[in-house]
Automatic annotation (TrEMBL):
<dbReference type="InterPro" id="IPR012156">
    <property type="entry name" value="Cold_shock_CspA"/>
</dbReference>
<dbReference type="InterPro" id="IPR012340">
    <property type="entry name" value="NA-bd_OB-fold"/>
</dbReference>
<keyword id="KW-0963">Cytoplasm</keyword>
<feature type="domain" description="CSD">
    <location>
        <begin position="1"/>
        <end position="63"/>
    </location>
</feature>
<protein>
    <submittedName>
        <fullName>Cold-shock protein</fullName>
    </submittedName>
</protein>
<dbReference type="Pfam" id="PF00313">
    <property type="entry name" value="CSD"/>
</dbReference>
<dbReference type="InterPro" id="IPR011129">
    <property type="entry name" value="CSD"/>
</dbReference>
<dbReference type="GO" id="GO:0003676">
    <property type="term" value="F:nucleic acid binding"/>
</dbReference>
<dbReference type="InterPro" id="IPR002059">
    <property type="entry name" value="CSP_DNA-bd"/>
</dbReference>
<dbReference type="InterPro" id="IPR050181">
    <property type="entry name" value="Cold_shock_domain"/>
</dbReference>
<dbReference type="GO" id="GO:0005829">
    <property type="term" value="C:cytosol"/>
</dbReference>
């Protein structure tokens, strides 16, 4: 599991970005990648990564 911080999340459009704490890399997250609950800017989260259509996405995202 990776840990990171939600950099941006638009609830209306259903997507955003998470910055990985270890690598400082940003990962795209879609609302379908959330593991229950909602996220918002500055939330600390755990997530996994998975290859998507346009690059690596954050999946199984949950607040910690």
């Amino acid at each position: 599991m990776n840990t990171g911080t939600v950099k941006f999340f638009n609830e209306e459009k259903g997507y955003g970005f998470i910055t990985d704490e270890a690598t400082r890399e940003d990962f795209f997250v879609h609302i379908t990648g959330l593991n229950g609950g909602q996220i918002q800017q500055n939330d600390r989260v755990e997530f996994e990564t998975q290859e998507g259509r346009k690059g690596v996405n954050a999946v199984n995202v949950r607040k910690i």
